[in-house]
Sequence to fold (482 residues):
Amino acid sequence: MTRRLLDYGAGAVLLECADLAEALSLLSVVRGAVDPVTEIVPGARTLLLRLSGPLTPTDRQTLLTVEGKPVHPTPGEAITLRARYDGADLHEVARLTGLSVEGVVRAHTGQTWTVAFCGFAPGFAYLRGEHNALSVPRRPTPRTAVPTGSVGLAGPWSGVYPRRGPGGWQLIGRTETVLWDLDADPPALLQPGQQLHFVES
Amino acid sequence: MSTLTIHATGPLALVQDLGRPGLAHLGVSPSGAADRAAHRLANRLVGNPESAATVETSLGGLVVSVDTVTWVAVAGAPTEVLLNTTPTASHTAIVLSPGDRLRITAPRTGLRSYLAVRGGLQVTPVLGSRSTDVLSGLGPAPLTGGQRLLVGTPTAALPDADRAPARPPSTVLEVTEGPRLDWFVPSAWSRLLDQVWTATAELNRVAVRLQGPALARLSDAELGSEGLVRGAVQVPASGQPLVFLSDHPVTGGYPVIAVLTERSADDAAQLRPGAQVRFRR
Fold:
């Protein structure tokens, strides 16, 4: 599919790509190629471009056609996160996936997760797994307060809420691991390319 | 250096500046004053750079004093400001002397006011900003009674104009089409513009949640998480739209049907529970 440029008010534009890989491949390319772009926020298959001024027709054409540079994440040691699988939506996830509760836990702990990109909240990483057995929709209405360390699922992603706050993902468990620490460098534990496993505690 | 003493905070008093943009890769929201125009104006009235830190109050109740003669200004929601027991004006520069108490009362309309102190508030910045981000908890804790804040040294002259017109906040929010308008049924856009929406009691610096008839989507397909901006009007599966303010999450997985103009994003920061809101293209 071709990319699309979607207007997002006077100060931004959304570049929709074929998939996550294409979006990430454009990160380094777009920054230098289009003048008014001041910041790029990657998403599941998009780049949000914050703009200091309007895009010229040439800018638009560049964004739609420029070739990306494929990114190869550098997997170091995989991190292990211990989690208690007692989340508020665990049974709902079992129902939605057709797995038993134990089956949901085994599916979550049994695959390697990779950080695709960070966003949503400080220290929050979008994790891509190896298969879609745990693919579930978000909750119809987001919660206004999700407990710190909650392990969640939404669409093809898993993630851990680093801090109490709003969230719309299905909660299956909770980890004590600290994902965000201002005194650490970098402050976020999970960086793009990092691999991790969950272990039931 | 002089000191600002907080004697009372009202429901919520926070330190704010123009935020910490450019940190989306850490998952950090831009944050900053919810009504950016009011924050900037308050600073200009006392000869501060617009980036100086102010106190953002919600529903008034802030009472402060100073230990040296200091210029201050209050801008934002139309509200009565008392110098000791005497009404003084908002949207103008006021001199506070040691022993004076300045009180920002609860506004008649609107929600937030900004107290600028000449020299700016000198709390310790976090990731380059003095703003409190209520979503992530970054930045200074909410202010409490008895707290003392250091005030910096002025860097420019006071402006020649010492009074600005107070523009009452509007509940008509101007929008352009959002990036995911095509995720909605064709009638959703006119429904967005035709309806009167009610601001719920769940509003905060992250978002104003609106109540009204559901805005229906074309399908149940999941939208992948994608970047958000201040002023984005997002519609979760419930069909009830919400308007993002300064502490919006960096990304979100629900479609954005419309985007507010900058000016209307400032007005959205003045909505209180029960406000009757309309959108206009």
In short: Residues 108 and 273 of chain B are 13 Å apart (CA to CA).
